[in-house]
Design brief:
Elements: H1 2-18, H2 21-58
Length: 68
């Protein structure tokens, strides 16, 4: 949780440093609002993909490498 807060603080700092205080804070808040749903839906999709890979590779047949 501390790393997430640190990343958000760094984002605000970089946006304010690159522009000015008004545009930096407004731009940062827009980034938080727009990217929050991406993170919210991305993590369960990542978990589903990892579970699929776990089951897809569990009983896989061995692969024989033939050097031609």
């Amino acid at each position: 949780m501390a790393l997430g807060i640190a990343a958000a603080g760094w984002l605000i700092y970089e946006n304010v440093h690159a522009t000015n205080a008004l545009y930096g804070v407004v731009g940062s808040s827009l980034q938080f609002v727009l990217f929050f749903p991406v993170a919210l839906y991305g993590l369960p999709l990542l978990a589903i993909a990892l579970i699929f890979l776990l089951f897809a590779t569990y009983k896989g047949a061995p692969v024989w490498l033939i050097d031609l």
